[in-house]
Amino acid sequence: MSSSTYRKRGERSPAASALLHVILLGASFIAVFPVLWVLIISLRPGFAGSSEVHVFEASSFDNYEYVVAKTKFLAWFGNSISVAFFTTIFGIFLSATAGYALSRFRFPGHRSLMWTFLVTQMFPVAILIVPLYNLMNRLGWVNTHTSLVFAYCTVTVPFCTWMLKGYFDAIPAEIDEAGRVDGLTPVGTFWRLILPLARPGIAVTAFYSFLQAWGEVAYATAFITSDDKKTLAVGLQTFVTQFKQEWGYLAAASILITIPAGLVFFFAQRHLVAGLTAGGTKG
Amino acid sequence: MAGRVRRSWDKHKYAWGMVIPVVLVLGVLVGYPLYRGVYLSFTDANEQNVAATIGALQVPDSFSFVGLRNYVDVLFGPNTKFWSVLGRTVVWTISCVFFHYTIGLGLAVLLNRQLRGRSVYRVLLILPWAVPTFVSSFAWKLILARDNGIVNHVLGNLGLGTFDWLGNDTLAFLSVIAINIWVGVPFNMVALLGGLQAIPAELYEAAEVDGASPWQRFWHITFPGLRTVSATIILLGVIWSFNLFAIIFLVTRGGPGDATQILVTYAFSAAFEGIRDYAVAATYGILILCVLVGYALVYRRALRSSGEVW
Fold first, then answer.
1. Comparing A4-18, A72-86, A215-229, B203-217, which segment has the lowest mean pLDDT?
2. Which ipTM score applies to this complex?
3. What are the pLDDT digits (tens) for A248-272?
4. Residue B5 buriedness (CB in 10 A; 0-12 / 13-18 / 19+)
5. Which of B275, B274, B264, B263 is nearest to B44 (CA)?
6. Membrane-crossing residues (chain B) (predicted)?
7. B290-304 pLDDT per residue, tens
8. How many CB pairs under 8 A join A and B?
9. Which residues of B49-80 are buried (b: 16+ CB within 10 A; e: fewer)?
10. How far apart are CA A186 and CA A198, in angstroms?
11. How far apart are the C-alpha atoms of B140 and A38, rounded to whole Å?
């Protein structure tokens, strides 16, 4: 069969190639445009209510200067970092041990625990938020960051356990056996052999928890009342209220938030999906 | 009996020891609130009669048990919005998951080909996923704004008229759906791309030898090869969309009126806006959970009967 009459997989006519690129360019434009637009607005000083936006006008960093110097942005940034950090540490500690136990041992309660984690995924914020709020209120924790860390663990712990189980499943059981032959307890095997091997998985779930806490809105809105303690997700909403609309500041703040999160994300995303689907399919 | 428990403990102590912290933490943070939520849904609790600490003053609970009244009111009461909001939630969930999956699959298939600039496209297409939700919500609010949004600006210049994207009932609902599709496609795309790359190339070669058309190859090799990945992302997609709070809350606050409320945002506004009606919010929460657990059970059964692992 000659190659001119028969087109193998992966070979295309020039027209098909062009169409492919046109579709992908269009999709990429839709994917990128909103962020690009925020970037453009953020460089427009005084964009508040004018009816037209001149894209190629002289740009400046006035909005950025104002946001960093004259608002509580840095305080909110710090709050978000610390809430996300503690959520991550606490959540990983819990879910790594549980994920390992679920991956390696068949114990009474194994199946129902897996099922519980799945059901916990379904808990809408609406069902837990009121009782959690009342609980925190009773403990005097409303308007503290501790309340947020605990609230976020209700989301991250079951999910990370699920994902880490998938990662542990991918580590050969022979390694555990070798550890046991050398006289390690199961806990020792986990700590000295498995955890170091699962480091990429740990990194990815840590990143997932971090992002989850970083972008959460509902609990942060309901639990935090004072301005100083707000996280970014809540604090930024104060830039645009009924009475004032400081779009330029909000845009600048948004870009400042997106850049670090986006950078780390691009390193983690490939593994994020692998772990997620592995954890999900090997129940 | 005691001996059996003991033997069982000796055999499984490491496993249990390792899951106990999680069980305890989830017990306190999920189990207790869940129990409390169920309990609240049988009471008339609101912000005036729930225990609170105001300074040094301890105010005890003073709400009372009302049995099934909240459920009757929510499900059958004359002013209930439950059914209309549930209907909207279902439309929202199905449209979001359908477009997430189909657009994600389409892009994954395109990206899975030999093509110049593939990694650049991949990074650009994943971008929406990397952006924190409150930033993307804000970006879309800016784009769709009635007076100075770019969409209306462009439409106006083209002489197509301008629209109140977030102020009109139907348009607002379509807008939040579109925004959530924009947010969710990258995850589906990446997951399906991973699935595509795991399908052995020999299958395609064999099919080519047999003279299968591209469409036949897609339908008989690609699609079945993606089944496990698809099952997972659709299950998660439905749960996530059904419970999705941030986008609607940040873009429209459920408005105009209640035009973009789904069950979760509706329950939140009952609990934390106006007079805080904790009991009704809890009732909504329990009903949402019942819907989702029912869905998960049916889904799992369907997967089992078609031979999936779980």
1. A4-18
2. 0.82
3. 888 888 898 888 777 777 777 666 6
4. exposed
5. B275
6. 14-35, 90-111, 123-143, 171-193, 229-251, 278-298
7. 888 888 888 878 877
8. 303
9. bbebeeeeeeeeeebeebeebbbebbeeeeee
10. 16
11. 9
Q: pLDDT, tens digit, for every residue of A215-257?
A: 888 888 889 988 889 998 888 888 776 666 677 888 888 898 8
Which helix (H) or strand (E) segment holds residue B176: the answer is: helix B169-197
Q: Which residues of A touch B155 (CB under 8 A)?
A: none
Structure tokens of A61?
């960093």
pTM: 0.82
Residues of B in contact with A107 (CB under 8 A): 12, 15-16
Chain B residue nearest residue A220, CA to CA: B246
What are the residues whose beta carbons fall under 8 Å from the beta carbon of A243, sequence distance 6 or more?
A: none
8 A C-beta contact, residue B104 and residue B188 = yes
Six-digit token string for B97:
């998951």
CA A237 to each of CA A259, B139, B232, B270, B285: distance values in angstroms, whole numbers, following the listed order:
19, 13, 34, 20, 26
Q: Which two tokens stand for residue A234?
A: 């809540």
- Owner of token pair 């009109």: B168
Sign of CA dihedral B198, B200, B201, B203: negative
